[in-house]
Amino acid sequence: MTMGERRPTRILLADDHALVRQGLRLILDAEPDLTVVAEAGNGAEAVDLADGREVDLAILDIAMPRMTGIQAAREISRRAPEIRLLMLSMYDNEQYLFESLRAGACGYVLKSVADRDLLEACRAAMRGEPFLYPGAVTTLIRDYLRRDDAAERQPADVLTPREEEVLKLVAEGHSSKDIADMLVISVKTVDRHRANILGKLGMRDRLELTRYAIRAGLIEP
């Protein structure tokens, strides 16, 4: 690389659909200033890869198994705050948008127009600028205008990352044994996490936990 050349932006691409990753990679790798250096099939894998590789930008699908893109964004922000974050979603969803921004994302790209918006969003992120599709800007303005009348939300950091992980799996209908196997912990530990989650959120059963998980963007409605 000569003195006048800039190193391409190194990208971590996370989506649980291999064909989607392949299509996005073709778009990104065709640009001389962008290069995909790692791929992940779920949020937990994305966190591990971001922790162990030199990455400038992580592009995270919101709806992924084990750990969502929003959960992964929070964890990457905590571990490696220098990594810029972009969220990908099939949904023009107000709650997903707000949770993404709270998690540290600097952009939100709809998959339906990724071929049009993704490159611009990547470059904006690396310039330190936000990227939002037009409908998202409208949503933010509307939220600002009605904020005084809105009920106070549950604090985003009320649960630990592990408790969020357990909550997501509980809300998806997995048994304590299934969750224990997936997270490589004991059933007793799962039950303790569940009890702590219920206590912190002031809830009584899985139905209430599921409603909360949907509102928090942990699972799809």
From TrEMBL:
Protein origin, superkingdom: Bacteria
Post-translational modification 4-aspartylphosphate, affected residues: D61
UniProt KW Hydrolase keyword: no
Keyword Phosphoprotein among record annotations: yes
Record lineage: Bacteria, Bacillati, Actinomycetota, Actinomycetes, Streptosporangiales
Domain Response regulatory, residue spans: 10-126
Key words of the record: DNA-binding, Phosphoprotein, Transcription, Transcription regulation
Biological process annotations from GO: phosphorelay signal transduction system; regulation of DNA-templated transcription
Stretches assigned to the HTH luxR-type domain: 152-217
Gene Ontology MF: a single term: DNA binding
Designated name of the protein: DNA-binding response regulator
